[in-house]
């Protein structure tokens, strides 16, 4: 059974990895190909973001997310 991943967990992961990589939010936005506002929203834990945009950022750190089937929750 897959655990439902909360946006707060994603936010913490990305912010921590960004800082470990010594990247600013601007650097991460540019390298991942998303707008700076997307990085800020992710790090604030906003949950109304596009999965594809979140994945673009997660790919920078070797991770991606996929949709969760209701039966898997």
The pLDDT mean sits at 87
Stretches where pLDDT falls below 50 for ≥5 residues? none
Number of strand segments: 0
Let me know the largest β-sheet.
none
- Share in helix: 40-55%
Radius of gyration over all CA atoms, rounded: 12 Å
Strand content: under 5%
String of helices and strands = HHHH
Helical stretch tally:
4
Give me the secondary-structure category.
mainly alpha
Shape: globular
Provide the fold topology.
Elements: H1 7-20, H2 25-32, H3 36-43, H4 51-59
Helix pairs in contact: 2-3
Q: What would you say this structure looks like, in words?
A:
The protein is mainly α. The protein has a domain at 19-62. The protein has four helices and no strands. The chain has helices at 7-20, 25-32, 36-43, 51-59. Helix 2 packs across helix 3 (36-43). The longest helix has 14 residues, at 7-20.
Throw out a few tags for this protein.
about 70 residues, mainly alpha, 4 helices, about 0% strand
Quick overview:
With 73 residues, the protein is mostly helical. The protein has helices spanning 7-20, 25-32, 36-43, 51-59. Helix 2 (25-32) crosses helix 3.
């Amino acid at each position: 059974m897959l655990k439902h991943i909360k946006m707060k967990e994603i936010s913490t992961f990305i912010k921590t990895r960004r800082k470990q990589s010594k990247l600013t939010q601007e650097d991460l936005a540019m390298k991942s190909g998303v707008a700076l506002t997307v990085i800020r929203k992710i790090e604030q834990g906003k949950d109304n973001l596009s999965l594809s945009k979140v994945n673009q950022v997660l790919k920078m750190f070797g991770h991606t997310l996929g949709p969760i089937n209701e039966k898997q929750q």
